């Protein structure tokens, strides 16, 4: 499915009434993982209150041991500090990287802002090398901007 086809499906999920936020996020994770062939793990990490650490939220894909990530550690922890998208074409070329699965070859992390504050991020792993480009960044920014309206 194309990003343009997925966008209304994302906003439909977000507009459901009587659905908990985490259930909406879980549905979005599955929507993306199931419909974009190179999205092999899709999940959310959120800042744990005022602590400088991220906590794993809803995700689709293999379970991970990395349910808590300190700021600065791994790709996710670096985005918590930089507030900028991080596209990693080859995870094996990164020093500051937390491996969740040996099959993962590339990764993208896009932060999410509420009132200018970075509250968390969407993290996507791919088993394909150099899987992500600017179209993924723009699409995931769209998803996060709409998810942020729930907070
Ligand atoms: N690879 C991430 C850790 C999270 S897993 O991909 C689910 C990182 O380096 O921060």
Summarize the structure in words.
Helices cover 34% and strands 26% of the residues. With 151 residues, the chain is α+β, with helices and mostly antiparallel strands. Helix 1 (3-15) packs antiparallel against helix 2 and helix 1 (3-15) packs parallel to helix 4. The structure holds methionine sulfoxide (SME). It comes from Flavobacterium ichthyis. InterPro entries: GAF, GAF-like_dom_sf. Residues 26-143 form the GAF domain.
Q: Which segments are poorly predicted (pLDDT under 50) over 5 or more consecutive residues?
A: none
Structural class: alpha+beta
Helical amount among residues, as a percent range?
A: 25-40%
Biggest β-sheet strands, sense, barrel: 6 strands, antiparallel
What shape does the CA trace take? globular
Q: Give the averaged pLDDT, no decimals.
A: 97
Topology:
Blueprint: H1 3-15, H2 21-35, E1 41-47, E2 53-60, E3 68-70, H3 74-82, E4 86-88, E5 106-114, E6 117-126, H4 134-148
Antiparallel strand pairs: 1-2, 1-6, 2-3, 4-5, 5-6
Helix pairs in contact: 1-2, 1-4
Bound molecules: methionine sulfoxide (SME).
């Amino acid at each position: 499915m194309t990003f343009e086809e997925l966008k209304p499906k994302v906003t439909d999920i977000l507009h459901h009434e009587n659905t908990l936020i985490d259930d909406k996020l879980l549905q979005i994770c599955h929507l993306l993982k199931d419909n974009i062939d190179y999205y092999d793990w899709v999940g959310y990490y959120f800042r744990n209150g005022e602590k400088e650490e991220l906590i794993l939220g809803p995700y689709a894909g293999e379970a991970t041991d990395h349910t808590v990530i300190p700021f600065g550690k791994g790709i996710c922890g670096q985005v918590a500090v930089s507030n900028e998208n991080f596209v990693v074409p080859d995870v094996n070329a990164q020093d500051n990287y937390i491996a969740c699965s040996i099959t993962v070859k590339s990764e993208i992390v896009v932060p999410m802002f509420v009132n200018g504050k970075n509250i968390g991020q969407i993290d996507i792993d791919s088993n394909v090398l150099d899987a992500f480009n600017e179209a993924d960044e723009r699409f995931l920014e769209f998803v996060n901007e709409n998810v942020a309206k729930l907070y």
